[in-house]
Amino acid sequence: MKKHLEVVGAVIVREGKVLAAKRGESKYPYVAHRYEFVGGKIEEGESAEDALVREVKEELGADIEVEGHFLTMEHEYPDFTITLRTFRCRLLSDFHNTEHEALSWMPLAGLNAGDWAPADAPAVEKLKGL
User: Fold this and answer.
1) Helix, strand, coil distribution of the chain in percent, nearest 5
2) Fewer CB within 10 Å of terminal CB in the chain, N or C?
3) Pick from 92, 57, 16, 128: which is nearest to 120 by CA?
4) Which pLDDT tens digits describe the chain residue by residue (130 residues)?
């Protein structure tokens, strides 16, 4: 049986653009150098919202307000399965990149789901319609 991960992602939209975090090298080539939402794994005993606040603080050094659920996706990768819960979030402070290859503000109208990790693609498609 494949390992199953419960993860969260922050959908941060500002002035018609979404914050995209580009992954660096990975032991899983199908997610390496792809964009994803800032976020990560939910730890034991943690709510999805608390995990997201913690992950954004770790990855961006920023504080956020979780405004509400955006989309939950299930995806099966070759080596593991994932449940990704995304939430609309608002930045409450400045941020900086601590662990991604790059951070970009991408215009919603020009999003290409093929540039993103496959688990994130349904949320990217939903964003294009906003």
Assistant:
1) 25, 45, 35
2) N
3) 128
4) 889 999 999 999 999 999 999 999 989 888 999 999 999 999 999 999 999 999 999 999 999 999 999 999 999 999 999 999 999 999 999 999 999 999 999 999 999 999 999 999 999 999 998 7
Q: What residues does 65 pair with on adjacent strands?
A: 90
**Angle CA 80–114–127, to nearest 5:** 95
Q: Give CA–CA dist 93/69, Å, rounded.
A: 21
Q: CA 80 from chain center: how many Å?
A: 17
User: CB atoms < 10 A from the CB of 32, how many?
Assistant: 14
Give the predicted TM-score (pTM) of the model.
0.95
| Beta-carbon contacts of residue 13 (< 8 Å; ≥ 6 apart) | 19, 88, 108, 127, 130
